[in-house]
Amino acid sequence: xINQRVSRTINFISWLGSILLLLLFSYLAWRGYRQTPTADxxxxxxxxxxxxxxxxxxxxxxxxxxxxxxxxxVKQSENLKRHAQIEAAERLNKIASQLPGMVxxxxxxxxxxxxxxxxxxxxxxxxxxxxxxxxxxASPVLSMIHPDDAQLVYDxxxxxxxxxxxxxxxxxxxxxxxxxxxxTSRSVPxxxxxxxxxxxxxxxxxxxxxxxxxxxxxxxxxxxxxxRTPLTAISGAIGLLHGEVFGPLPQQAAQMTQLAQANVKKxxxxxxxxxxxxxxxxxKMLFDIQPQPLLxxxxxxxxxxxxxxxxxxxRYQLQAISADxxxxxxxxxxxxxxxxxxxxxxxxxxxxxVVNIIxxxxxxxxxxxxxxxxxxxxxxxxxxxxxxxxQADSSDIKSKGGTGLGLAISKQLMSRxxxxxxxxxxxxxxxxxxxxxxxxxxxxxxxxxx
Amino acid sequence: MTELQRIMHVExxxxxxxxAKIALEAxxxxxxxxxxxxxxxxxxxxTVAPQxxxxxxxxxxxxxxxxxxxxxxxxxxxxxxxxFMTAKVQSNEIASYKALGxxxxxxKPFDPMALSGQIRQIWLDFHx
Lengths: 450, 128
Description:
The complex is a heterodimer. By secondary structure, chain A is an alpha+beta fold.
C-alpha cells in the first residue's frame, strides 16, 4: 500500500519535473535562438534537455529505491516488534498460568468505569470468569465482592488511586456457585496520560490460610481458658493443702506440695508467655500507654519480685540517680519487662549476691540498668538472647527453668513502648541489662498545683 | 460499715467452685453461696442477699458481663461490690469490666491463701 503510494508520488514528481525541464529548456533554447538564430543552438539545448531529463529520471529512480528500502526495513522492524510482543505475551501467560492466583491490570477511568485490560487465566479459578469477560468491563468482578467487604474495597481503591499508593487488601468474594472465599490482593497504581489509573497486581485465594488462622485463634483461646481453668483448680487445691488449711502436713507431704506448687507456677508462666507472644506477634496485645513517673513503677517491680529473689538468697538494691523522670509507658507491661530482668538476675546470681538497679537520665531518655554478678552470657549465645525459646545450651542454666520466651517478649514490649532493651555481659563476671525509654515531653505531663 | 460475711460465687467449673469455697470459708471465715451459672445467680440473689459477688467471666450460656448487667437491671447493687474472677486481665479487659460496674478484678489462677485478704481489701476500698 505504502509502496504504491511512494511509486505514484515519484511518478508524479517525475512527470512534473519533466514538464518543468521541458519548459525551462524550451525557454532557454528560444532565448538563445533569438540572440544567435542558428540550428546549432537548438540542437545544443535539445541535447542539454535530454541529458537533464535522463539525470532527473535516474535520480528519482534512486530516491524511489532508497525509500522502498527504508520502508522494507521499517516493516521488518515492525514485524520483529510484533513478534517479540506476541512472544512476551505468550511467555507472560505461561508464567502467569503457573501462579497460585491471577495477575491483572485494572483500569479505572475518570468517569468511574473500570476494566481489566489484562488478566491471566487464574481468574477462572478465583472468579469463575474468563479474561475476555472482564477485558472491557470489570463489573462482573466487582459485583462478586462480598457485601460486607464491598465498602472497604471501594474505599481502599479510591484511596490508592488518589495517593497512587500500593493497594493491598484481604477481602471476601461471593462466587456464582455460592461459595465465599477469602482473597488477598496487592497491586501498584500508575497514572495514565488520559487521567485513568492503571494497577498492576495479583489476587490469590487465601481461604485455606484464613481457616488455619481461625483454628489457631481458637486453639489459643482454648489454651487460654481450658488449660487455665484446671490449672486454677490444681493451683488452688495445692495452695490450700500447702497452707495447712486442713491441718498440719507431715514434713515430706509439705515438701511435695511445695514442689507441686512450684511446678504449677512454671506451667502458669509458660502459658502466660505463650499467650503473650502470640498476642504480640498477632498485634492483638493492647497497650495503655500514658505519661507517668518512672520510679514508682520500678519500686513496685522490686517489691513484687522480692520474694522470688529471696528464694535464691539474692537482694535487690535500688539506686535512683534521677528520681523524677516521667515516661510514656504501659506500667503493667513495663513491670512485666522488669520482672523478667529481675528474675533472671536473681536466678543466675550466686547466693548472698546483690543485684543493682540503677535509674538515671541519659540525654532525653530514661536509663534503667539491672546489674548482676552472675555467671554471665557466653559469646556463642549472645546473638540469640532475644530470640524465641532461647536458652543457653547448658544443663546448669536449663536447670534454672524458664520458658526461653521472657527476653523475646520483653524486646517486643519495649519496642511497642518506643523503648529499647540491650545488654552487655562477660562470661563468669555477670551481666548488665538495660532499658532505654524516651522521657515524656513537658506538654504531656499533668498540671500540678504550685 | 458492716463486716463482710455473705459472698455469692458464680462459677461454672465445679473444681474452682470447691477451691474458692474452702479458701473463702476456711481461710477467710466468710459464708459462701455458690451458683453454677449466671441464670442461677439471678434466681438465688434475692434469697441469698449477698454482700459481695464474685463472678466468673467466661461461662457457658450467660457469661459474667451479661450476668452483671442482668443483676444490675433487676436489683440494686449500689452497696454490693461485684468482683470479676478471670484469666483475661489485659489492661483493656480490666478497664471494660470496671466500665460495666465491677469493683475490681481478681486474676486467675488465684492464690487461695491470699484470696480472702484480697476480697476483704476490695470490700474495704468499696466502702471507703
